[in-house]
């Protein structure tokens, strides 16, 4: 792969262009030009290797967990559940059974948050079962498919919708549930519309100046493309566990992603807010960056095992602090999270 000749490229307005199915785009080079046309926040100047947190070899691609690491799924999903429940309860055209109306009306925002957490827990259980007990005889189930099935089950169990017991087409069912089938399907797609953490977009742009950046999520490709477009997250590549017909923490996902990028595992870094994800990545040869996010850590005891190479604490500035630790010279005057510039033509100095 030629590293010294980097053709001009457009930062994608349509994220379809970011999904790779072959060789990745050339790696950005450090330069000493006064302006950087991609970010318009100042170009990099050469730095000493001793100033970088990860060396020997220098990383070439940062792979990002998405749910919880890049986006605040908990607030986004809870907000949507709460808003859609209020809308259904207040709609003059809704025909909600009295029992369900009373039940939904009494639910607080915090209780909808508990439902969101139950939904998330079901996702974690599902993906780990697929990763640990692969069955080639069963068709691959995407996260979108699982999210819909799981939501229907949770709502039925909680008594917010009536169970479907016959083959009546969904569009003909008006049985007094809080939501009809089409509304539930739309609600299940909330995971396509998650909002980023304040530092996410700016941090990704900064990291793009030295590295490839790629999603590596259990979310399916359509979900990830939609989410990146919604949240304005400008990763250089979008990769999904769907491409490898498994889910993290299966080695197939980590090693498959490295191979797809044409890299050795030691040239790859996993960025996540979950220690179990990083432990699996580390066991497959990746380096690791932990970015602490509120309420995201599910295995705090793993901290003592020492497999994290770079730690970004809750009192730091997320991906922006990670960029600084990796040698990106973030201009202090424009360091504030959320101040990322718009998309522009890209020309890297070679």
UniProtKB/TrEMBL annotation:
It holds the Pfam family Hydrolase. Coiled coil: none annotated. The keyword Cell inner membrane does not apply. One of its GO terms (molecular function) is phosphatase activity. InterPro entries: HAD-like_sf (IPR036412), HAD-SF_hydro_IA (IPR006439), HAD_sf (IPR023214), PGP-like_dom2 (IPR023198), S-2-haloacid_dehalogenase (IPR051540). Keywords: Hydrolase. It comes from the Eukaryota. Gene3D superfamilies: HAD superfamily/HAD-like, Putative phosphatase, domain 2. PANTHER family: HALOACID DEHALOGENASE, TYPE II (AFU_ORTHOLOGUE AFUA_2G07750)-RELATED, HYDROLASE, HALOACID DELAHOGENASE-RELATED. This is Haloacid dehalogenase, type II.
